[in-house]
Amino acid sequence: MYTIKQLRRKKDISQSQLAKEIGVSLRTIQLYERKDANIPIKNLTKIADFFDLTIAELYLHEVNDMGEAYTKKQPFTKHGSVFYPLSHGKYLVMAPLVLVEWSKKYIENLKEDSVKNPFQAGFIVDFLNEEPHRVFEVSGDSMNDSTMDAIPNKAFVLALETKKETLTKNDENLWNRSYILVCSDRIICKQLMGFNRQTNALQCHNLNTSPEYQDFEVSINDVLQVFRVMKKQI
Questions:
Q1: Cβ distance 93 to 133 under 8 Å?
Q2: What would the pLDDT profile of 156-170 be if each residue is shown by its tens digit?
Q3: Ramachandran class of 55: left when φ > 0, alpha when ψ lies in -120 to 50, beta otherwise
Q4: Over the stretch 113-150, which tens digit does the pLDDT of each residue have?
Q5: Which first-to-last residue range defines the signal peptide (predicted)?
Q6: Angle formed by the axes of helices 2-10 and 15-22, to 10°?
């Protein structure tokens, strides 16, 4: 995040000093100060605390540095996400974040109908959607084919919840897109190719063509939630 460099300079401290305060290496801070840095939420929290900011305020600083001015309009909450109106009709959305290590807990809470996300991550969106927003941390390289569509290991994706029943209609507009499937025993990111009515299963495709990543099917009955991937942070 470029704003980390700006805040650090205003505080008149070096990268080495900030690294020591956060508990990471100098090289890590150098990487974090890049515009497209993917910062673990735990370290992002430490950085925000160090500068006496909330994570949302840290994102708003980044937004202003990108030229998307915060309009000072009152933020509002919708489906557990907080939306900050920006200029040009855009929004900074602070959405519930599901980290890889929190996946099992998320599924357990979902089964108990008591989902609570202790983390959030920010994305800029061009318009509001009615569907609930969630951010998921992706694990593994099965969706990494080094193209523009690739979703590499540790990437964060912003996704919109979709009713799983819609995926049984075989609408062509639904397929060849990346989705997050919250299953009864795991959370996966895959490209969906269609719905097999004979097996009552979703056809999942890996972008990575390595032999270790084989396409497979997931029974629709094992799927608890479906989210359509809209954006990613690498």
A1: yes
A2: 999 999 999 999 987
A3: alpha
A4: 766 767 888 888 888 898 999 999 999 999 999 999 99
A5: none
A6: 100
- Give the chain's length: 234
Domains, the chain, in order of start with CATH, read 1-67 (1.10.260.40), 68-233 (2.10.109.10)
**Which residue has better confidence, 50 or 73?**
50
Lowest mean pLDDT among 54-58, 119-123, 146-150, 205-209: 54-58
Comparing C-alpha atoms, which of 213, 218, 211 is closest to residue 193?
Answer: 218
- C-beta contacts of 168-173 below 8 A and 24+ residues apart: 168/195, 168/197, 168/220, 169/195, 170/194, 170/195, 170/197
How many angstroms separate the CA atoms of 96 and 180, rounded? 14
Q: Could you tell me if 207 and 168 are in contact, meaning their C-beta atoms sit under 8 angstroms apart?
A: no
